[in-house]
């Protein structure tokens, strides 16, 4: 995967060490690097708020930009969300699925770091200020095909299969080249339900 290969030198620079999850190794990032990249979690860097926390834009040294979700409350529910999401995203590697960059544990806070999707969601592109003006017919067809490829991977190539359960324009995210990536999905056997919408932040 070209995108994951490109992340290797970036992660090598920020990681303090590797941590083992149920499915393998995940990059653990230092709290100080997240704090600096988000401007001490400044309100000006808030991208959105979801049911389990706030999401910030993080500008790291070297021009690398990511989205950092901060799960700010303690308790079994938040810990379960944190562990489930890490485990799930670690074993999913596809160009049309939002990528996990790393995570951080600091005191009672838990952080998950994702690639930043700079063009936001399909919903924002269609119904936001631009009203879809940036989406040519060719780009719209490409978004549809990208979304279908992501769903096919989740349904047909993951073990156990993963069902999206909440496919809508706000959960289809777009990178700088308008490549579409799916977000907010769950294993078939997982009873965890989606809470408030947070996909807009990534």
UniProtKB/TrEMBL annotation:
Transmembrane segments: none annotated. GO terms for molecular function: ATP binding; protein serine/threonine kinase activity. SUPFAM superfamilies: Protein kinase-like (PK-like). Its EC number is 2.7.11.1. ATP binds at residue 69. Residues 41-202 form the Protein kinase domain. Keywords: ATP-binding, Kinase, Nucleotide-binding, Serine/threonine-protein kinase, Transferase. It comes from the Eukaryota. It catalyses: L-threonyl-[protein] + ATP = O-phospho-L-threonyl-[protein] + ADP + H(+); L-seryl-[protein] + ATP = O-phospho-L-seryl-[protein] + ADP + H(+). Belongs to the protein kinase superfamily. PANTHER family: OS01G0750732 PROTEIN (PTHR47989), PROTEIN KINASE DOMAIN-CONTAINING PROTEIN (PTHR47989:SF27). This is non-specific serine/threonine protein kinase.
């Amino acid at each position: 995967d070209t995108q994951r290969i490109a992340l290797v030198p970036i992660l090598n620079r920020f990681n303090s060490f590797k941590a083992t999850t149920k499915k393998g190794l995940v990059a653990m990032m230092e709290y100080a690097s997240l704090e600096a990249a988000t401007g001490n979690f400044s309100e000006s860097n808030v991208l959105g708020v979801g049911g389990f926390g706030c999401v910030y834009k993080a500008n790291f040294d070297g021009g690398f930009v990511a989205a950092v979700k901060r799960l700010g409350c303690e308790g079994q529910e938040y810990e379960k969300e944190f562990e489930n999401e890490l485990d799930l995203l670690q074993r999913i590697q596809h160009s049309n699925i939002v990528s996990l960059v790393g995570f951080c544990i600091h005191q009672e806070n838990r952080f998950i770091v994702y690639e930043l999707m700079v063009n936001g969601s399909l919903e924002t592109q269609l119904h936001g200020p631009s009203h879809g003006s940036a989406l040519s017919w060719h780009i719209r067809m490409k978004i549809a095909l990208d979304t279908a490829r992501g769903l096919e991977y989740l349904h047909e190539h993951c073990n156990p299969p993963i069902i999206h359960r909440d496919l809508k324009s706000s959960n289809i995210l777009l990178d700088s080249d308008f490549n579409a990536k799916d977000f907010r999905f769950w294993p078939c056997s997982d009873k965890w339900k989606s809470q408030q919408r947070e996909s807009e932040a990534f």
